[in-house]
Amino acid sequence: MKLLTFKKDNEVRLGVKTDNGILDLNKAGLDFTLEDLVKNENELSIVKETINSTDSEHYLSEAEIEFLPPLLNPEKIICVGLNYQSHVEEAKLVNVPENPVLFSKFNNALAAHSENIPLPKVGGKFDFEAELVMVIGKEAKDVSEEEALSYVFGYTAGNDLSVRDLQFLTGQWLIGKSPDGFAPIGPYVVPAEEVDPFNLNIECKVNSEVRQSSNTKHMIFNCAKIVSYISKHMTLRPGDLVFTGTPEGVILGLPENEQVWLKPGDEMEVTIENIGTLRNVLV
């Protein structure tokens, strides 16, 4: 099941991707948003029933809709840095982190599938980072690794866009990570019961050229460890987003004389196995 949030006729709606197209669940009689569904995953059974009993008049093509970020107003967007050994090495950092390296983005950074992303007027070293993103489904505080994934509602694809010269301007990464639109996610959220987060292929293409190709099994801290660790330091709430880190292949990891930074017109595609492909163009 691939859930999405979209806009049609100036209304924000909940949909599900099917073989017949995008089913408009609100037009089919369901009066809730994806945020509501995240908070009450028992309603997933209602969604399944609706899919099996809906008339064709409630299906739309993707060309008819405007994708929105699946979650529009998360309380927190938490990101994990340096979470693949190969990325630690290419970033020229000798020590592998002993604990997850956490930083944050804000809601202004959210962007949707197919949304054009404006490059900021400050900085110039623009980079991509393909990532698996967790959507938290239940309030989580001091949870163990063994139970941690039961607090995850689902998974989506994300691109942790970065302005490298701003990221390393000081010891804090924030301004290099949170320009407007620099956290695109989507296009779909797949419920956790349908995803094995420990073994998913992850890929990033720029202008159709493969730049990153790896698997989540190579994470230093897997999804269960990440949720457990964060929950011991702050309370995770339904709808919170957790970017889980990027593998090798980013521009930062290249020798300086080979670093060609992203520019207006570049198209990025982040593909996560069993979830989908997130596409954005820089402007």
Which consecutive residue ranges, at least 5 long each, have pLDDT under 50? none
Q: In terms of quaternary structure, what is this? A: single chain
What is the H-and-E element order? EEEHHEEEHEEEEEHEEHHEEEHEEE
Q: What is the structural class?
A: alpha+beta
The DSSP helix count reads 7
Helix content: 10-25%
Strand order of the largest sheet: 7-6-17-11-12-14-8
Characterization of this structure:
The chain is an alpha+beta fold and 283 residues long. It has helices at residues 34-39, 44-53, 85-90, 145-148, 164-167, 174-177, 223-231; strands spanning 2-8, 11-18, 21-24, 59-60, 66-67, 77-81, 101-105, 110-111, 116-117, 126-127, 130-136, 152-159, 162-163, 183-191, 201-206, 209-215, 241-243, 267-272, 276-282. Strands 7-6-17-11-12-14-8 form a 7-stranded mixed sheet, with helices on one face. 46% of the residues are buried.
